[in-house]
Specification:
alpha/beta; Metallo-beta-lactamase, Chain A; seven-stranded mixed sheet; six-stranded mixed sheet; 13 strands; globular; L-ascorbate metabolism protein UlaG, beta-lactamase superfamily; RibonucZ/Hydroxyglut_hydro
């Protein structure tokens, strides 16, 4: 996939990613501000505002949960003059400049980009971003959350709600997609990604929402359900890993 899309991607942690497209930086669901080992900055999975200097920066947060958003991102505006924020409606950013409050099922124009939203099956929104000719899907916590032990009717309602949102993208294609594959879901860990890939699809797909459990990539390598799109899944090995796509 190298060089086909025209983007650079850094894995920050969990559902957090930095995407560089030309002179833009897009930061998604960043929260872990502690660097990995001795590495610093993006290489250590941490955003240092100094690294963003000179770029047009947009920070996205899909919802208020502590593993998707940290309020300190609002302080970056002190060091990065060309910055704006697209924050889910459940995040209180009162008084912060350059904030777009994002509600489900809406379309926003943000610094020359088109940003659309879907309703999450958990909290907040998912993002569809079109920037510099590149189309990105970041799910946030929009997923097929099928929990073993939950009542059948609740799991069925969750599946229906997820399909309803993803079906809104039917017929579209994406360059980059960031989609949950939570290992806590057990045998159903792939259901959300599988439905997305078979309904919509993307050139390069970053599994996410796995925390420190990188064994999820071994499961994806072995899982026969993923055989038709396995070559489009990006294997992540560490925080701060950079991908040129």
């Amino acid at each position: 996939m190298s060089g086909k899309i025209g983007a650079e991607v850094w894995y920050l942690f969990h559902s957090g990613f930095a995407v560089k497209i030309g002179g833009r930086f897009l930061i998604f669901d960043y929260y872990n501000t502690t660097a990995s080992g001795r590495l610093r900055g993006l290489e250590g999975g941490v955003v240092d505002p100094k690294e963003l200097a000179g770029s047009r920066v947009t920070v996205f947060a899909s919802h208020v949960h502590a593993d998707h958003y940290v309020p300190s991102v609002l302080k970056w505006a002190r060091e990065v003059p060309d910055i704006r924020y697209v924050l889910s409606f459940d995040i209180d950013a009162s008084g912060a400049p350059g904030v777009v409050k994002a509600y489900p099922g809406q379309t926003y124009g943000v610094d020359g980009m088109t940003v659309r939203t879907l309703r999450s099956t958990d909290e907040g929104v998912a993002f569809i971003v079109e920037a510099e000719g590149i189309k990105i899907y970041h799910a946030g916590d929009l997923n097929w959350w099928h929990w073993e032990g939950e009542p059948d009717e609740e799991n069925a309602a969750m599946g229906a709600a997820y399909k309803k949102e993803i079906d809104k993208l039917r017929g579209e294609t994406f360059d980059l997609a960031f989609v949950p594959v939570d290992p806590r879901l057990g045998n159903e860990y792939l259901w959300g990604l599988d439905y997305f890939m078979k309904t919509v699809g993307a050139t390069a797909v970053f599994p996410m929402h796995f925390g420190d459990d990188h064994s999820i990539f071994d499961r994806l390598d072995r899982d026969p359900a993923a055989k038709d799109y396995r070559n489009r899944l990006v294997r992540i090995t560490r925080r701060g890993e950079k991908f040129a796509l």
